[in-house]
Amino acid sequence: MPRGEATIGRVMAQVAMVMNLDKCIGCHTCSVTCKQTWTNRTGVEYAWFNNVETKPGVGYPRRYEDQEQWKGGWMLDKRGRLVLRSGGRVKRLLSLFSNPDLPSIEDYYEPVTYDYDNLVSAPAGQDVPVARPRSVLTGKPTAVTWGANWEDGLGGAPEHAGGDPNLTGEWAEKVRFEFEQTFLFHLPRLCEHCLNPACVSACPSGAMYKRVEDGIVLVDQNRCRGWRMCVTACPYKKVYVNHATGKAEKCTFCFPRIEAGQPTVCSETCVGRLRYLGLLLYDADRVGEAAATPDERDLLDAQRDVFLDPNDPEVLAAARESGIPEDWLDAARRSPVYALVSRYRVALPLHPEYRTLPMVWYVPPLSPVLDAVDAAGGNQDDPDHVFAAVTRLRIPLEYLAELFTAGDTDVVAGVLMKLTALRSFMRARALGETDDETVLEAVGLTARDAEDLHRLLAVAKYADRYAVPAAHKEDAAALTALENRCPVESSGEQRPAEGRRVMLGLPTLRRRAPESPAGGRP
């Protein structure tokens, strides 16, 4: 993006993801393959590094978005400084052994197994033997009353979905859980691998760290002491505790695959072709400033301003000076994530008001617009009628705004209008009608833009969805000699803590790693 006279600071690269919610069918293939790859062992039966939620709904764990209760993410203090919502170092020290701001197992669900042996060992009789559920934690008989996928397809919505923390304000009365009047969409979630991760700053032992080379947030199992401050600090509740080892675990963004230039397991197996992976170049020196933006509704633009144009010669020169390899720069230029987030601006972050600057973004779902035009007696060929219908869709703009823009409905409406214009233009072209770019011009797109967006969002070929460069093993030795600070750093005195860099096929390498804008780890 144009930066005017602004000076480019330290250029760093981040692997990021975009998901097109219009194409998610809620099949949970991503969740199952992630589960089989990363959490199919004792201690993390309840942990889903990737899960798919139905919205509206209370989510997993229950009401994780209610930060008044769980104290996740960042906030601004009275002097406008970034501070952890979970409290400062003294408060965290006092709650090391009794942290009240943790979801209980009931908020997740009690993992169960079944008494399968009873099916084969039951004596002959008139009754059919059954396999009753037993708690994995206690071994005692239990009842299955909640789960990570309990609300799938609005199951139980009349009873539970009203507790969705996003249903606030007078507009929430428009949301009804009645047949023919309700709505739903699926929201896949994983660790956001934030630019300003609250979990990293909250960790007393320095076990949570953000990798300098690609921005992936990981847990050093050797240093983790099970204090669980990371669970509280993460506003997305994507850090779990292994109840067998007592250590924190989380989504690794499939870093062994990323280092080999392959997409994550959830992306590779997604049947809807809705996930996009690519590199974003960003100005690390501006991360703290962006996260401290006073008005929550300005956080989206502030984060976008941190991202750098990979086609800008000045950015490329600064990136080379920072040691970013040429093939990574080429991948950044081909990145579908940059195209959707910054070039066409149709992807939005999940809850930017948490101030973590998340790096998993979403293209919001679009209800059937043309049906809404017909229902209102409008003309499908009239851009004014089509755009007016966007504000009357079944999925309320206010609800999407609560999720993706800190309540700013104008931004959501702008994105949905772009998607509507794209759909109308490509539909007319497919029907052999004369190209009329009026509808595109109304949203700031050209026919070339429409073709590019259609290729990305609708056709979504494998090579277009993923632009992930392989790691450079030859740089590993040189990196150990450096003392690089983390992308997210304090404007005050730096107190680096030791972190590590993990490379494909190499032993663990120690190096200096970051602290965050609010003062970092104790």
From TrEMBL:
Q: Which cofactor does it need?
A: [4Fe-4S] cluster; [3Fe-4S] cluster
4Fe-4S ferredoxin-type domain span: 15-44, 181-214, 215-244
Among the Pfam families in the record, one is Nitr_red_bet_C
Tell me which domain of life the UniProt entry assigns to the organism this sequence originates from: Bacteria
Query: Which Gene3D superfamilies does the UniProt record give?
Result: 3.30.70.20, nitrate reductase domain like
| Subcellular locations according to the entry | Cell envelope
Keyword flag Hydrolase:
no
Extract the ranges annotated as region (Disordered): 487-522
Q: Which UniProt keywords apply?
A: 4Fe-4S, Electron transport, Iron, Iron-sulfur, Metal-binding, Repeat, Transport
Gene Ontology annotations of biological process type:
anaerobic respiration; nitrate metabolic process
Q: Which GO terms describe its molecular function?
A: 4 iron, 4 sulfur cluster binding; electron transfer activity; metal ion binding; nitrate reductase activity
SUPFAM superfamilies xrefs: 4Fe-4S ferredoxins
Q: Name one GO cellular component term.
A: membrane
Q: Which InterPro entries match?
A: 4Fe4S_Fe-S-bd, Nitr_red_bet_C, Nitr_red_bet_C_sf, NO3_Rdtase_bsu
- Full protein name: Nitrate reductase subunit beta
